[in-house]
Write a structure and sequence with these properties.
The chain has 2 helices and 2 strands. It has 107 residues and is largely without helices or strands. A two-stranded antiparallel ribbon has the order 1-2.
Length: 107
């Protein structure tokens, strides 16, 4: 879970696909699909049995001035997020005040 140092085990059924969604999808789905940290490791004790596993990172950003609003997936459901632009979302997540972010002063 976001904000935690714990790893979450995920079992994938034969022929299945696991998708790790980001902040943009969380906003669009009104948090029906939640954003998680993007990290993957080989399951313990799997060794050679996991060689068929494939992990691909793909990140999508909209135009800087594109408006992001929750989709109305359920009629009359109140949005959990206010509308925001892609640029605002970027700076909210990646801006210079983000905790743990390196600055020029850090060397």
């Amino acid at each position: 879970p976001r904000g935690s140092d714990e790893w979450q085990g995920v079992d994938c059924p034969e022929g299945g696909l696991i998708v790790n969604v980001g902040d943009l999808m969380e906003r669009w789905t009104n948090k029906r699909w939640t954003s998680t940290p993007h990290r993957v490791r080989l399951p313990q004790g799997q060794g050679e049995a996991s060689r068929g596993r494939l992990s691909i990172a793909w990140f999508q950003n909209l135009n800087y001035d594109a408006e992001i609003s929750s989709l109305e997936l359920v009629p009359d459901e109140e949005p959990l997020y206010e509308s925001i632009t892609q640029g605002q979302l970027f700076w909210e997540r990646e801006g210079p005040q983000r905790p743990g972010r390196r600055t020029d002063a850090d060397g």
